[in-house]
Amino acid sequence: MNIIRKRHLSRRALIRGAGVALSLPLLEAMIPAATAWAKSGAKPKPRFAAFYIPHGATMAKWTPAKTGTDFEFTEILKPLEPYRDRVNVISGLGLPLAYGSDGAAAANHTRSSAVFLTCAHPGTDAQARLGISVDQVAARALGQDTPLPSIELTIEESSLSCGEGLSCAYRNTVSWRTDVTPLPMENNPSVVFERLFGDGATEAIRAARRAQSKSLLDSALSEIAGLKRDLAAPDQLRLAEYLDDVREIERRIELAGQMPAGLQLPNAPVGIPNDFETHIKLMLDLQALAWQSETTRVATMMFAHEVSNAVYPNSGIRDPFHNLSHHSGVQANKDKFALLNRYHVSMLAYFIDRLKKTPDGEGTLLDNSLVLYGSGISDGNDHNHDPLPVILAGGAGGALKGGRHLEFERKTTMANLHVAMLNKLGVPTTSFGDSTGVLDI
């Protein structure tokens, strides 16, 4: 026997309190009574994310030996194996525009990140000039009815004007709203959290309101309690789990900004964890929460910038990132770089697992998302831009099959994949950047 819900909610319903405007996850109470999820107007729209990792990979330990569905996950890609049904390995793609006018690839780190999502020629005049990036094409179609059309995240400190001419705009972001509008990327989880869930026209207003309550959620508890009483049991559970996630992230942000007693350190941005893994997982959780609440549906993230010499102790490798990518053809160095590649892929696996465990409509966020992961460089020692290491994950709302290694003709432009992705996201597209067609994915 089906029980008709006691209360119907708008899909854009908010929990409001002092300094809080909190979007709700998709609940059954937002679906008209006796209406199937798939036939209702509340069917989740697809989400899109693009993750950029610099310096390429040890391709021999990245690329599966077989194509099609009967492939084995390689050493680097092994962390993704539990999610085989929602993972596609894409081989053969390149970034022709990342090569210089003479065809040389040397020292084209800046072009690698600049071209990855735009597939446009970097300008050489006094103003940074590229082209709209694929995430912003998606945001125009998928993000206009959400509080934020898109969010742009990074792990390293970022600036679009850092005294190095045009290279900052090309190296420190992969997201471009127009050909002359690079989007800044935020690496402070506190700022991201406030942007997603804070209320008020200015930071000063938001800060004053936050000071009135012990936490962002405490000020809305009375409304939450009233709302829960009117929801059916499944929605009460989903809402409780969602709010627990919000509290946990809020707690971790607060901890990240605290200094141990007696420890003397230089001034540092408040709220940014000291180690990469804590930092990136927090940012990934924030992105998942933003998708769950539909505060935004489109996100980009840079795991690091080109020429970054970050060190990742939890990977077991102590060599600086960029230095290690210059393996000089030494197999031992290639092997160490592969371990570092695998560690970065494990962060993608963490995000996929989070999406898989998060309900969304009749499925999960993973079912309704399309996640691009890759680099604009193939072999970091040669600075070549094909074949690129590329992963597609998620089901794109049922439009994308998983469990495949798809190999295309060598040097097929990355733009052909972008056209295919946009179509899978329900954004009809025939061309993008330097595309020559559309990939069959």
Could you walk me through the main structural features you see in this protein, from its secondary elements to its overall organization?
The chain is α/β, with parallel strands linked by helices. It folds into two domains: 1-43 and 193-258 and 267-271, no CATH class; 46-187 and 297-441, Alkaline Phosphatase, subunit A (3-Layer(aba) Sandwich). Helix content is 30%, strand content 14%. It has helices at 109-116, 134-142, 167-171, 189-197, 203-210, 221-229, 233-256, 276-292, 321-325, 331-356, 414-424, and strands at 14-17, 20-23, 47-52, 87-94, 151-154, 176-178, 181-182, 298-302, 359-360, 363-364, 369-374, 390-393, 404-413. The strands form four sheets. The protein has a seven-stranded mixed beta sheet with strand order 5-8-3-11-12-4-13, with helices on both faces. Strands 1-2 form a two-stranded antiparallel sheet. Strands 6-7 form a two-stranded antiparallel sheet. The longest helix is centred in the last third of the chain and has 26 residues, at 331-356. The two termini are 41 Å apart.
